[in-house]
């Protein structure tokens, strides 16, 4: 397997899938990733490969530290260091804070914040040792920047991602590995339901939700050679919300 390999976590659907499609068009070998449906991941990788790109797939739960470490170390042993990772996978479990259960708190923190360590830590030293530079892009949210009603767990995790991204960017800057965070507002995916859409529309100056492809275009740029001097940044894409 040759060329630059980029892992896109949570690329079975939504924003992650759009990112995987865009990076494959740019000539990266994309490692498609998800938690459950191996057949679906294989189909996506085959589709990307048969439409001029190059792709393979990996399956593991990003909240499971040991599973992530084992899967990523095996992949690196077989195919070498990654050039980059887009840490996209995430979940929301919304509830007003007084009603928020410990499962809703833990689930969101483990999946959205602990996964920063679980996924990125096994990748970093092989990237450094490869001495080829690299790209790390994380996904936060307008909720991580401004906070959002009913999302105390989600806002906490997404704010944590911003701090972790900025700190890691400082550590890796001299290695030509850029580390940036993309913070979308409301994007039209399976994560969003109609009730949320109606309520949210009042807060969006652009008066529309974003498209996964619009987020993918930003990530694609951050992964390109042209973005080599952009690091430690949080870039919002939210129709003017904050
Ligand atoms: N949709 C939005 O409005 C919006 C806004 C801001 C930020 N985001 C963030 O963007 C990212 C993608 O969101 P989306 O709307 O495309 O979500 P989505 O629900 O459509 O897709 C999420 C993906 O993550 C994967 N995933 C979830 N939990 C996982 C786990 N434990 N292990 C492995 N894979 C797991 C799913 O399989 C899926 O592929 C998330 O981090 C989300 O928080 C989304
Ligand atoms: C502020 C509100 C419209 C909103 C922003 C971001 C989200 C996300 O998934 O990151 C949504 O859940 C939504 O609450």
UniProtKB/TrEMBL annotation:
InterPro entries: FabG-rel, KR_dom, NAD(P)-bd_dom_sf, SDR, SDR_fam. It is an enzyme of class 1 (oxidoreductase). Keywords: Oxidoreductase. Pathway: Aromatic compound metabolism; p-cumate degradation; acetaldehyde and pyruvate from p-cumate: step 2/7. SMART domains: PKS_KR. It comes from the Bacteria. Its EC number is 1.3.1.58. The keyword Lyase does not apply. Residues 4-190 form the Ketoreductase domain. It catalyses: (2R,3S)-2,3-dihydroxy-2,3-dihydro-p-cumate + NAD(+) = 2,3-dihydroxy-p-cumate + NADH + H(+). GO terms for molecular function: 2,3-dihydroxy-2,3-dihydro-p-cumate dehydrogenase activity. Belongs to the short-chain dehydrogenases/reductases (SDR) family. This is 2,3-dihydroxy-2,3-dihydro-p-cumate dehydrogenase.
